[in-house]
Design brief:
28% helix, 6 strands, globular, single chain, 170 residues, TIM Barrel
């Protein structure tokens, strides 16, 4: 998928494997801004132990009102390997997280699937939450069958015109 990127509805078709950057500001490397136990948001998911949240850097929407602007649009975060991502999942499980909560994961689906496979081979048992902005391709969602237990998309817009205006998508 990264060689002719169509992970989101932008269908950039750039070759991220050779370093080309899509509308989402991503190449083939995983970039994570924060991985930690997250409390208080979505209490039914966070529970007492917290949600094992992984905030991915970059975004395919670029909303002008984004509360995570530095992460989503200024590319704040660090590059990590697929193996490191799988270890993050396992560390969150060891910290007694209720789940693995992937925040803004769309651009990294190919790598996330590989990381989940690695982590499951090492004992990952937690449910996986796909916490996205909702701007998704059905083929990408279909790739996640058997990997994601809960989908948590944001409902941002009721109108394409408003979406274009506030998400800088032309």
């Amino acid at each position: 998928m990264l060689e002719n990127c169509r992970l989101c509805p932008h269908n950039c078709k750039v070759n991220r494997k050779i370093g080309q950057i899509g509308k989402c500001k991503c190449d083939d490397k995983i970039k994570v801004a924060l991985a930690s136990l997250h409390y208080y948001e979505e209490p039914c998911i966070s529970g007492i132990n917290g949600s094992g949240t992984v905030f991915f850097s970059n975004c395919n929407l670029s909303c002008i009102y984004c509360q995570n602007y530095e992460i989503s649009q200024l590319r704040k975060g660090i590059e990590i390997s697929i193996e490191k991502l799988s270890n993050i999942f396992l560390n969150l499980q060891n910290m007694k997280a209720n789940n693995i909560n992937l925040v803004t994961p769309t651009m990294y689906v190919e790598q996330i699937i590989k990381a989940i496979d690695l982590a499951r081979n090492k004992g990952l048992k937690l449910p996986i939450i796909y916490n996205s902005n909702g701007y998704e391709n059905i083929d990408t969602i279909n790739m996640l069958e058997g990997y994601v237990d809960i989908y948590l998309p944001d409902f941002k817009y009721y109108s394409n015109n408003i979406a274009k205006k506030y998400s800088r998508n032309k």
